[in-house]
Amino acid sequence: METMNATAPTVADVVAALDSWYPPATAEQWDRVGLVLGDPGWPAGHLYLTVDVVPETVDEALAAGAGLIVAHHPLLLRGVSSVAATSWKGRLVHRLIRAGCALYTAHTNADTANPGVSDALAARLGLTDLRPLHPGEAEGTGIGRVGRLPQPLTLRELTGRAAAVLPRTAWGVRAAGDPDRVITTLAVSGGSGDAFLAEATAAGADAFLTADLRHHPAGEHLAAGGPALLDVAHWASERPWLDDVAARLAGRFGVATTVSDLDTDPWTLHAVQPPEEHHP
């Protein structure tokens, strides 16, 4: 049961809770998670949650008076030898430190957690009887989830449903497969998921919803008789998790939270080509 503190927590307090929910040791070896910058002793009375740390989300966090940003994607994923303010990332580091705002990242450790990123995605679609798509070492953990829809839908109907319940982006939702195929069991994976196409097939899913699907792997998967595919914007597939984290943190510490709805998906335009004209 969550408890509330009478006084504002420190950065260290919030980091300890986040690390207990999303253990850094469960992140992939290539990943960079945990406290990125800031003093553990700084107050963290207002928490800001975002998928991406970019100039626009930092503007929003500082305008809200945040003492700690909780982000999904790492700002500094690859090795750096300088954080001078000569690059946009360096400038963000300087801005945050000057403002007394810390930064924490939970990435692949939040993907594998239970509840984690894909649980929030599954909840948006109303899935029940959840099980991991790619099981982790601990029971119930793993990348992705497989579950049952509240009622069977055709692929066409499910595509429309996903577009309605997921955050709006220019990318939208596209699908591959027979539009009239009936979907009862759905696999989902927040973020890039074409590494789990084989798992979706082995899980007996009728369809697999994820992001960043590529032409050749998708085509080969379908040619082999695999589940139908729904491809959504990367940001939209991970944004639902922020609401879960914000609720847990507010319940634990009684602090104010701001969940960013700024669409940080890089694609900003989408045009549907008109149908071909058929002349007699």
TrEMBL record:
Binding locations of a divalent metal cation: H72, H73, D111, H234, E238
SUPFAM superfamilies documented for this protein: NIF3 (NGG1p interacting factor 3)-like (SSF102705)
Domain of life: Bacteria
Alphabetical keyword list: Metal-binding
GO CC terms: cytoplasm
UniProt key word Metal-binding: yes
Molecular functions (GO terms): metal ion binding
Keyword Metal-binding: yes
Membrane-crossing residue ranges in chain numbering: none
UniProt subunit comment: Homohexamer.
Family as reported in the entry's similarity comment: Belongs to the GTP cyclohydrolase I type 2/NIF3 family.
NCBIfam families membership: YbgI_SA1388 (TIGR00486)
Protein name per UniProt: GTP cyclohydrolase 1 type 2 homolog
Lineage per the UniProt record: Bacteria, Bacillati, Actinomycetota, Actinomycetes, Micromonosporales
